[in-house]
Amino acid sequence: MIGKLSGRLDYRATDHVLIDVGGVGYMVYCSDRTMATLPGPGEAVSLFTELLVREDLLQLFGFTTLVEKEWHRLLMSVQGIGAKASMAILSTLGADGVSRAVTLGDWNAIKAAKGVGPKTAQKVVLELKDKAPNVMAMGGTLAAAQGSVPAAPAGDDVLEPVVMPSASAQAEALSALVNLGYSHGDAAGAIAQAAGDGAAETPALIRGALKLLAPRE
């Protein structure tokens, strides 16, 4: 299994790149969002990879983060979602967007990806909803390990652990806001921001989201 490649980017196409690793060229397919982050030809590049093996095909897919790679793997586990559809979903939403859509049961966001119908989008949400918190937690763990989360201060002032809301709490808050007349997209975005601000229970999520959605004078 090829899990990561580091080398020189030889050329870029619309949906893939060629990476030279020690004189061997690897063709790696990427989402639109990943392609947008990659450097130009001749520059150093490093990607996490997932190898798709079929009887008549070997294909490498590249990701800038392990969270994006994990979502690709999970999306591919859903019947009706192949590599092309997975890349389309990640191109449309990004890893964070997929996490949010699946957690909140927002299958309309999944359906926005090219080639993904409503039934398949609903199946993605249904089958992966329980797995979303683990993927999101993986992102937090990696951020801490890589030093992007502030270290606890010295002495007795230790940072309190962040409590993330459950998928059910976010889904209940989303349903309540939609019933109040807010659009699905606006409500989902406000809930995600409220969760990031520390709200964990359904009432707190609703209050925080309502404050964010309130008209500004």
From TrEMBL:
One Pfam family here: HHH_5
Subcellular location: Cytoplasm
GO cellular component: cytoplasm; Holliday junction helicase complex; Holliday junction resolvase complex
Predominant location category: cytoplasm
UniProt keyword annotations, A-Z: ATP-binding, Cytoplasm, DNA damage, DNA recombination, DNA repair, DNA-binding, Helicase, Hydrolase, Nucleotide-binding
InterPro entries, per database record: DNA_helicase_Holl-junc_RuvA_I (IPR013849), Hlx-hairpin-Hlx_DNA-bd_motif (IPR003583), NA-bd_OB-fold (IPR012340), RuvA (IPR000085), RuvA_2-like (IPR010994), RuvA_C (IPR011114), RuvA_C_sf (IPR036267)
Chain spans, region Flexible linker: 154-166
Nucleotide-binding as UniProt keyword: yes
Region called Domain III, residue ranges: 167-217
GO annotation (BP), single: DNA recombination
Domain Helix-hairpin-helix DNA-binding motif class as annotated: residue spans: 73-92, 108-127
MF annotations from Gene Ontology: ATP binding; four-way junction DNA binding; four-way junction helicase activity
Statement: the UniProt record of this protein carries the keyword ATP-binding: yes
Spans annotated as Domain I: 1-64
Family: Belongs to the RuvA family.
Quaternary structure note: Homotetramer. Forms an RuvA(8)-RuvB(12)-Holliday junction (HJ) complex. HJ DNA is sandwiched between 2 RuvA tetramers; dsDNA enters through RuvA and exits via RuvB. An RuvB hexamer assembles on each DNA strand where it exits the tetramer. Each RuvB hexamer is contacted by two RuvA subunits (via domain III) on 2 adjacent RuvB subunits; this complex drives branch migration. In the full resolvosome a probable DNA-RuvA(4)-RuvB(12)-RuvC(2) complex forms which resolves the HJ.
UniProt comment concerning the protein's domains: Has three domains with a flexible linker between the domains II and III and assumes an 'L' shape. Domain III is highly mobile and contacts RuvB.
Function: The RuvA-RuvB-RuvC complex processes Holliday junction (HJ) DNA during genetic recombination and DNA repair, while the RuvA-RuvB complex plays an important role in the rescue of blocked DNA replication forks via replication fork reversal (RFR). RuvA specifically binds to HJ cruciform DNA, conferring on it an open structure. The RuvB hexamer acts as an ATP-dependent pump, pulling dsDNA into and through the RuvAB complex. HJ branch migration allows RuvC to scan DNA until it finds its consensus sequence, where it cleaves and resolves the cruciform DNA.
Protein name: Holliday junction branch migration complex subunit RuvA
Gene: ruvA
